[in-house]
Predict the 3D structure of the following.
Amino acid sequence: MKVFVVNCGSSSIKYQLFSMTNEVVLAKGIVERVGGGGNGNGNGRGRLMHTAGSSHIGLDVDAPNHTAAMRIILDTLTDPKVGILKSVDEIEGVGHRVVHGGEEAEKSTRIDETILDAIRRNAQLAPLHNPPNLAGIEAAMAAIPNVPHVAVFDTAFLSTLPPRAHRYAVPAEWYSKYRVRKYGFHGTSHRYVTLRAADLLGKPADSVNLITCHLGNGCSMTAIANGRAVDHSMGMTPLEGLIMGTRSGDLDPAVVLYMISQGFSHQDVDKALNKHSGLEGVSGLSNDMRDLLEYREKGEKSAELAVEMFVYRLVKYVGAYYAVLPNVDAVVLTGGIGENSLPVRKMFCQQLASLGATPDEDRNLSTVGGKAGPITANGSRLPIWVIPTNEELMIARDTRRIVAQGG
Ligand code: ADP
């Protein structure tokens, strides 16, 4: 079965085509600067990057909207010179990443009018993400009709958070009338590494207790009891929780009010907290962990502080989740930083010694480049594992399952 996975942002469409017989990626790529947006290449045109096996293409393309971009992708996939499909009819299911499913979305679901309505309704809660997700779905449904299209929600895996974890201690009407609560994000990644960890630890998926940490540009942590999410660091929006590339994570909400009283507009504060805080805000140098580690090596104090704060916040959250979980089987690190950043991982393991982590430097050094494995010693009371994430594969698996069930 061939499954097409689509991840649509405001100015890009990322895609992967899977053969689900053996879970192999047949082709993948991205159209950037859809609608002339993004970083801008000076000519107002979009850019296609496509890889199939050993062949790579990079082309300037006309992609004034998501429909045009989708057409370009499907034409490339079926181009006899570079493509690997004779016809789009070979695609048996399409999986879409959808950021916000609100309280309705507890699992991946075949897209129909009701689901489209739910995605539209939740656009208020995710104004930057749901509208482009919807544009991608509409473009793909028009271009590949007659096969199931499946929505895989970032929030779904976190829908099991109990009220004591997902409610904020604010007037109850804020929840009942305005839907103010923790929803959480990165759920597909947390679900993927949970299933993989259960497998690697030799435990049934419904009895594994984990603390999973997705550390990319956005960062989030989930407490997993018996395979289900019971707490999570991101909130009503992705701003809450850990320190991220450009997002502040937790802070006293009164800071927002104070900055507004100092003459900042609410848009200024929104932008500052989402786009110019986190690692970038503290260091004043970069939002990228690789850069900061280099600056730190050169003795830049602000980079050192940013990295120190990043790890401190992680460790603090692990402590909180450790306290609310029954016997933690492992802490799992994933995402660009979790999978690659050796100094961050080293500091993290060292600082969790009080909870029983015994760092193993050789394992830390060798568990890179897409490898999964523990980075603590055998017998460590708190095992810490690195498990590379694969959200696209999770989306493809859900899509295959729903197609096989007849939609
Ligand atoms: P996204 O959330 O956009 O998918 P990624 O998961 O790719 O992002 O994570 C990006 C982060 O991972 C950046 O801070 C980047 O510096 C970091 N990262 C990626 N590779 C390395 C590496 N080899 N060493 C240190 N940090 C890395």
User: Anything to note?
Assistant: The mean pLDDT is 95.
